[in-house]
TrEMBL record, chain A:
Major localization class: endoplasmic reticulum
TM annotation in the entry: none
Subcellular location: Endoplasmic reticulum; Golgi apparatus, cis-Golgi network
Keywords: Endoplasmic reticulum, ER-Golgi transport, Golgi apparatus, Transport
Database matches in PANTHER family: TRAFFICKING PROTEIN PARTICLE COMPLEX SUBUNIT (PTHR23249), TRAFFICKING PROTEIN PARTICLE COMPLEX SUBUNIT 1 (PTHR23249:SF16)
Keyword DNA damage in annotation: no
Presence of the UniProt keyword Transport in the record: yes
Pfam families found in the cross-reference section: Sybindin
GO cellular component: endoplasmic reticulum; Golgi apparatus; TRAPP complex
Name of this chain's protein: Trafficking protein particle complex subunit
One GO term (biological process): endoplasmic reticulum to Golgi vesicle-mediated transport
CDD domains (alphabetical): TRAPPC1_MUM2
Amino acid sequence: MRCLYIFNRNGMCLHYHVWLRSLMTLSPQQDQKLMFGMLFSLNSFTAKIDPVSSGKENNPPCSFYSFRTNTYKLHFMETASGIKIILLTDPRIGDLREALMHIYSNIYVEYVVKNPLYSPGQPFRCELFNMALDHYVKTLQ
Amino acid sequence: MVRQLLTDFEDVEEVNKQLDTMGYNIGIRLIDDFLSKANVTRCSEFRETADVIAKIGFKMFLGVTATVSNWNADFTECSLVLDDNPLVDFVELPETCQGLYYCNVLCGVIRGALEMVSMRTEVKWARDMLRGDDAYELRLKLIEHVAEEYPYKDDD
């Protein structure tokens, strides 16, 4: 497990968590902006070239969920409310869609959304969230 | 809570607005809670959205279901009728507060939650048993779908 990003629908990076990242070529703001921009375009691209969807509004939109290079694998999940969760991991890891859903429902919603001190749309730093996340990630490895 | 607001603001219209704002703040957080528990996919049409709110949303958070009815011609407006409203158990409106929408917080909640899934709506009470009508009816109107925009300007 290398690192985690959480973005909201406005491109604001709500959280960035790193476990193991030896190389960072850009400043954090540029890195996050690049990440969001790339994912926004990739999502839009995958929906447009979908060869299976009939094009009518009745089908759920097509979304990509991971890509892999020789050094890492990127896992992506977007909710209807625009919250995007991105995990960068070792390239040998399998499908993490359920894990991403778990991080959203049981960690983000429980410790951040339900936290009365949190204002939606702002970056957050929450110890309980970090602890729960670390704990869950250890169970995955 | 409503009584406290009435003491603080005194004007019934102001309290209605405050309840709506409070509901909005709840709604924008509630949507994530709902999405994580309800396991529903993105709704393709407003009709589906109304059904999901009435059957799953209300059930999850209020313990009651509502019925969807009175659609307008192009399916952008409908009514949600509640047979039972747990928010008003043991509540009676005195004569000084006849303009009050006691459950206005619900309007704000629905509006806030839908805004987070790209729908701008207007939600109002059409019938309110506390004011003498025979049922609780919310009028839900879709104003527009807000498309997802790329938030950064391409200036770098």
